Amino acid sequence: MSDSTLYQGLTFLGFLALGYLVLKHTFKLLKGFRVHILSRWWKEDLGKYGGWAVITGATDGIGKSYAKELAKLGFNVVLISRTLEKLKKVAAEIEKQSGHKVKIIQADFTKGSEIYPKIEEGLKNLDIGILVNNVGMAHQGPTVFHASNDKEITNMMNCNVMSMLHMTRIVLPKMVERKKGLIINIASEAGTRPYPRVTLYCATKVFMDYFSRSLNIDYKSKGVTVQSVMPLMVSTNMTFNVKTNLLVKSPDDFAWEALNTVGLTNRTSGCLSHSIQSYVLDLFLTEYVMSSRIIAWIARNTLRILMSMQKTE
Ligand SMILES: NC(=O)c1ccc[n+]([C@@H]2O[C@H](COP(=O)([O-])OP(=O)(O)OC[C@H]3O[C@@H](n4cnc5c(N)ncnc54)[C@H](OP(=O)(O)O)[C@@H]3O)[C@@H](O)[C@H]2O)c1
Ligand SMILES: *[C@@H]1O[C@H](CO)[C@@H](O)[C@H](O)[C@H]1NC(C)=O
Ligand SMILES: *[C@@H]1O[C@H](CO)[C@@H](O)[C@H](O)[C@H]1NC(C)=O
Question: What is the dihedral of CA 28, 31, 37, 38, to 10 degrees?
Answer without folding.
Answer: 160
